[in-house]
Design goal:
This is Regulator of SigK. Keywords: Cell membrane, Membrane, Transcription, Transcription regulation, Transmembrane, Transmembrane helix. The chain is 40% helix and 21% strand. The protein is an alpha+beta fold. It has two domains: 144 residues, Arc Repressor Mutant, subunit A (Orthogonal Bundle), CATH 1.10.10.1320; 99 residues. The strands form two sheets. A four-stranded antiparallel β-sheet has the order 1-2-3-6, covered by helices on one side. A four-stranded antiparallel β-sheet has the order 5-4-7-8, with no helix packed on it. β4 and β5 form a beta hairpin.
Length: 251
């Protein structure tokens, strides 16, 4: 993908609408393009405000009003029956009206539950968008830092790993390309290398061959990072030989 094309992806990235390969390519581009990083921050903030603006909760009295009007508003006959008298036997009309009324009452009763469910879905979506926005901002902060240092290495199976470290932000970002999926029930775990002592730095997405991970915790005095294969959920300390070891580039 050309640099000119990458410049056009800021909006899609802010809305989390990029496929994994384009997302990873664009996040690498963020490390060298301050203009795109600034535009992503502004678009992400705007998207969050718009999401909050469209949320609406039905008024509490709406359900009661619907139930009241069921008893006073006559149901209109089907279009094919207008102008003709019903031929149903006595008592049948009243029975079907009862069924219709019961269905309307059930629908009205369910309406309150649907409204609550819709509001919960909207709230969950806003929270997820806020978490994603915060993650993107923190990743961009590392990638665009003036003291960001990048180290890259070929990994097993033709994969490629790149780590970007900013001492001023005190965080690191790991970008992986073409990672083979871990064995069933396993996950790739990242580690900070603190002079030979490995400190957990988070888990990779086991279903993504291309991934961008903001390493958990501060860099502090770590001189590099490692990757191991661990049981789902991760381990307190490495339990396998490292898949990769990468040194951080000195400032």
């Amino acid at each position: 993908m050309s640099t000119a094309e990458l410049h056009t992806l800021t909006g899609a990235y802010a809305l989390h609408a990029l496929p994994d390969d384009e997302r990873v390519a664009f996040e690498r581009h963020l490390g060298v393009c301050g203009a795109c990083a600034q535009e992503v921050r502004e678009l992400s903030a705007t998207a969050a405000r718009l999401g909050l603006a469209v949320s609406a909760v039905p008024p509490p009295a709406l359900r009661d009003r619907v139930l009241r009007e069921i008893t006073t508003v006559r149901q209109e006959a089907p279009s094919h029956a207008r102008g003709s008298r019903p031929t149903a036997s006595p008592g049948r009309t009243g029975r079907w009206s009862t069924y219709a009324l019961a269905a309307c009452v059930a629908a009205a009763a369910a309406f309150g539950g649907v409204a609550v469910w819709q509001n919960q879905v909207a709230q969950d979506a806003r929270q997820e968008a806020a978490r994603a926005q915060l993650h993107n901002e923190r990743v961009a902060q590392v990638l665009t830092a003036s003291d960001a240092r990048t180290s890259a290495s070929d990994l097993a199976g033709g994969a490629r790993g790149t780590v970007v470290v900013s001492k001023s932000v005190n965080r690191a970002v790991f970008l992986a390309s073409d990672m083979a999926p871990p064995p069933g029930g396993k996950v790739y775990q990242l580690w900070f290398n603190d002079e030979g002592t490995m400190r957990s730095a988070g888990l990779m997405n086991p279903s993504a061959s291309d991934d961008t991970v903001l390493l958990d915790g501060p860099v502090d005095s770590a001189s590099g990072m490692g990757i191991t294969v661990e049981p789902t959920g991760g381990s307190e300390e490495p339990t396998s030989d490292p898949v990769a070891l990468m040194d951080f580039q000195d400032a």
